Amino acid sequence: MAIQIGQQAPDFTLRDSDKNKVTLSEQKGKNVVLLFFPLAFTSTCTKELCSVRDNIAFYNNIEAEVFGISVDSLFSLHKYKHEQNLNFALLSDFNKTASTAYDAIYEHFFNDMDGVSKRSAFVIDKEGIVRYAEVLENATEIPNFDAIQACLKEINQ
Prior knowledge:
Layout: E1 13-16, E2 21-23, E3 31-36, H1 43-54, H2 56-61, E4 64-70, H3 74-83, E5 89-92, H4 97-101, E6 105-106, E7 116-117, E8 120-124, E9 130-135, H5 145-155
Parallel strand pairs: 3-4, 4-5
Antiparallel strand pairs: 1-2, 1-5, 3-8, 6-7, 8-9
């Protein structure tokens, strides 16, 4: 079922690219941006995540924690994060639990790859409530970062 604005964000625990556990519910008190992306090392994913990297000051200034999430292994994400100098956490959803909970997963993807995260963006407020949800069917599209930033500004007032 699609995530609805106003609902409690589904909780999850995933490992980051440094092998640390990250639990969404432990982020309460912070605004959180979840960016699900299909695959590390691909052109559109790199463009999207490097855009966030280049604008991280906005997220830091508004006290928003950004997490990139894909079904790649934490080892792949570790290499990708360092090659792209990403300055926010990448989480491995290798078992597809978070992608499934957020209804952000392709049943069938390119070249017979099943179970790949859909490019999606969610803003979760300090109380754990979903305030913005965008799930893209077309993997070549990028989330609306202007709308994401506007949402963050609004909930941070």
